[in-house]
């Protein structure tokens, strides 16, 4: 019987090489069964923060319905797209998938409304940023391992998380303007925050764009916030629906939506691949560091597609993200987060025992940051239930 032994995947010269990675903060033996990036991915999947994503909203609050996407289902869909793109480009698929799965770990409950509310509450205490919070989770807050706090991920994974949206600073003097959660990471300057991320991180970021745009269209249509007819005049999207109806004139509305979304994802991935190949030919990078130091991202949509995409983003902003039903829901969500923060700051004694032990007593900044970590970790339903318990007379009496 022949025993299968995994080998290094065939990769491009500019791909990240897990066997020549820059290492972890606490050195660990690599092992022969999994590459360092595979271990990072596995640690993300087994983390508490990753499991909690199933209860955090994408656009709709989690209790609105089981069908709509959560941060967890979104992250899984991003990882599938990222892995597919990485494979075609000869990049490290495990690193691309790892970064896709990790990119939303730091989101608080209730999506962008929850983040806006927590950012406003934390403004006097160093602010709040979900990307920085993701780094705080994987370097400090996850408490699963005997030898270290956090997940002790590789430099390449930490860098990709930090620079999910591109370079964070232009010069060293700008480092002091970064969110406190990022600056609290030991030796955070070593993440080279003035450069672009490595190629796998750029793939994960563009996969995030592809996933959320298409799946927000899907969720918005199925929620009845707009109709197929409403979106027919939007460039690129309308063409996809026209083509599906031409090919399949007799299928149901649900199948029409599914086929159109499939086609749009395929069109966007094809555009990214074509544009990325054009830039690879232009710059001819020989290493991941060559890509980090380029004057622009290596992985992106074409300028032509960016023009087509703009009316779609405007449509979703008007017809979905600012729809009055979503506004009502997110207005309530924002109040829940803001009121919980104010109450916990005013009376830290009502925090759970573990959080009380970490709070700073008379040191308001330390207490605020513990409160921020606690609220950011909450799922939508847990935050709603905490608010009910603490702000209604019958909250605890009805338990």
UniProtKB/TrEMBL annotation:
Keywords: Hydrolase. Residues 1-41 are annotated as: Disordered. Residues 71-213 form the HD domain. Belongs to the dGTPase family. Type 2 subfamily. PANTHER family: DEOXYGUANOSINETRIPHOSPHATE TRIPHOSPHOHYDROLASE-LIKE PROTEIN, DEOXYNUCLEOSIDE TRIPHOSPHATE TRIPHOSPHOHYDROLASE. This is Deoxyguanosinetriphosphate triphosphohydrolase-like protein. The lineage of its organism: Bacteria, Pseudomonadati, Pseudomonadota, Alphaproteobacteria, Maricaulales.
């Amino acid at each position: 019987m022949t025993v299968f032994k995994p080998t290094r995947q065939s990769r491009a010269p500019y791909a990240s090489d897990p066997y020549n990675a820059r290492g972890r903060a606490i050195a660990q033996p690599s092992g022969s069964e999994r590459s360092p990036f595979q271990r990072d991915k596995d640690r993300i999947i087994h983390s508490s923060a990753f499991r909690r994503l199933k209860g955090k909203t994408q656009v709709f609050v989690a209790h609105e319905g089981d069908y709509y996407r959560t941060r967890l289902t979104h992250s899984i869909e991003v990882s599938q797209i990222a892995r597919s793109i990485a494979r075609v480009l000869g990049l490290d698929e495990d690193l691309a998938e790892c970064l896709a799965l990790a990119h939303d770990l730091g989101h608080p409950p209730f999506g962008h409304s929850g983040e806006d509310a927590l950012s406003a509450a934390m403004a006097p205490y160093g602010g709040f940023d979900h990307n920085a919070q993701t780094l705080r989770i994987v370097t400090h807050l996850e408490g699963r391992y005997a030898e270290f706090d956090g997940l002790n991920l590789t430099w390449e994974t930490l860098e990709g998380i930090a620079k999910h949206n591109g370079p964070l600073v232009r010069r060293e003097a700008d480092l002091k303007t970064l969110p406190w959660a990022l600056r609290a990471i030991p030796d955070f300057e070593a993440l080279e925050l003035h450069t672009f991320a490595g190629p796998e991180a750029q793939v994960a970021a563009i996969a995030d764009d592809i996933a959320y745009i298409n799946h927000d269209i899907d969720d918005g249509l199925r929620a009845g916030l707009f109709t197929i007819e409403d979106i027919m005049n939007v460039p690129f999207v309308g063409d996809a629906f026209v083509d599906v109806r031409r090919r399949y004139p007799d299928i149901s509305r649900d199948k029409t939506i599914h086929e159109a979304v499939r086609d749009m994802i395929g069109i966007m991935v094809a555009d990214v691949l074509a544009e990325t190949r054009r830039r690879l030919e232009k710059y001819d990078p020989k290493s991941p560091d060559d890509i980090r130091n380029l004057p622009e991202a290596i992985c992106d949509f074409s300028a032509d597609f960016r023009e087509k995409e703009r009316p779609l983003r405007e449509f979703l902003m008007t017809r979905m993200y600012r729809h009055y039903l979503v506004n009502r829901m997110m207005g309530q969500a924002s109040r829940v987060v803001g009121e919980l923060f104010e109450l916990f700051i005013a009376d830290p004694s009502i925090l759970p025992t573990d959080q009380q032990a970490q709070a700073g007593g008379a040191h308001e900044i330390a207490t605020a940051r513990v409160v921020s970590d606690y609220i950011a970790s909450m799922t939508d339903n847990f935050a709603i239930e905490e608010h009910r318990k603490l702000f209604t007379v019958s909250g605890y009496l009805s338990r």
